[in-house]
Input
Amino acid sequence: MFFLPPYCPQLNLAEIVWRKLKTQWIKPNDYRHKDSLFYAVNRCMTNIGKELKIQFSPFNIN
Output
């Protein structure tokens, strides 16, 4: 067994995805209107694993 703290965002996949959405994948113009923000989030969520990748380790493991 491993002890995990009650709140550990670096181990929570959803927290990692939202951080990437807010800082890298969504453009500042997408925040101007609610509809454009919803469209941008939907576009990003559709492309995760295809065009948008999340690297969990600083090392490249092939």
